[in-house]
Write a structure and sequence with these properties.
- With 210 residues, the chain is α/β, with parallel strands linked by helices.
- The chain has a single domain (6-179), classed as Aldolase class I (TIM Barrel), CATH 3.20.20.70.
- The chain has four helices and nine strands.
- The chain has helices at 59-73, 89-101, 114-118, 123-130, and strands at residues 10-20, 28-33, 55-58, 77-81, 105-109, 134-137, 158-161, 179-184, 187-192.
- Helix 2 (89-101) packs parallel to helix 4 (123-130).
- The N and C termini lie far apart (59 Å).
Length: 210
């Protein structure tokens, strides 16, 4: 049996943003996984649902980008989104473990509830949670838009604090949501609060000037 070291793991990446304040507390390195078995109506990342596409990236490459973000942007942690992080639990767990070993924090968004996730036969899910500081769980329900809590898509979703690095009474949870717009080559990328006008916007090519 071959034993894989963490650096051998390849992660299916849909997108990486080295520094954002729209995906969790403080400045964070945000990583979106490619592939999700759920089909929440109104998903703000429909292009990330297929398990085909994206870019396979070695864990060592991801960590190198994150280390650079620490130096350049003084990030305090990483946020894992998707797609569905739990559908890539082995790679996500290895990444989360390496992140916490560096003294940084880990936030995970999952469309599964915590109860559903804990029933998973995949042991890497428990390993991921063991190296997670904040879990936001539950499917996105477009008919229940969240209007009070920052960084949360719909009112049914819950916030679980797995460590003492963050607290429920942190006033940052009640600040207004933000939307970040970034020009990357010929693409306009949008991340943050999933306003209807922003859904799918980041992958649309810019119109060429006459």
């Amino acid at each position: 049996m071959r034993i894989y070291l963490p650096t051998d793991i390849k992660l299916p990446i849909a997108q990486i943003i080295p520094c954002t304040e729209a995906e969790g507390p403080g400045r964070r390195f945000a990583l979106w996984f490619q592939g999700c078995p759920l089909r929440c109506p109104g998903c703000c990342n429909p292009e990330m649902l297929p398990f085909t596409g994206g870019t396979e990236m070695p864990l060592s490459n991801v960590l190198a980008q994150m280390d650079a973000a620490v130096q350049e942007h003084n990030i305090e942690g990483i946020t894992l989104l998707g797609g569905e992080p739990l559908a890539h639990a082995a790679g996500a767990a290895a990444l989360a473990r390496a992140v916490q070993e560096r003294g940084l924090t880990v936030m995970v968004f999952s469309g599964y509830t915590l109860e559903e996730a804990r029933q998973s036969p995949e042991p890497a899910v428990a390993e991921l949670f063991a190296h997670t500081d904040i879990l936001v769980d539950g499917p996105y329900l477009r008919e229940q838009p969240e209007t009070r809590r920052r960084w949360i898509g719909s009112a049914n979703q819950r916030i679980h604090f797995f460590s003492d690095r963050y607290r429920a009474d942190d006033p940052r949870w009640l600040l207004p949501n933000t939307l970040e717009i970034c020009l990357h080559g010929s693409e306009l990328r949008v991340n943050g609060f999933p306003a209807p006008s922003a859904v799918g916007l980041w992958q649309r090519p810019l119109a060429k000037r006459p």
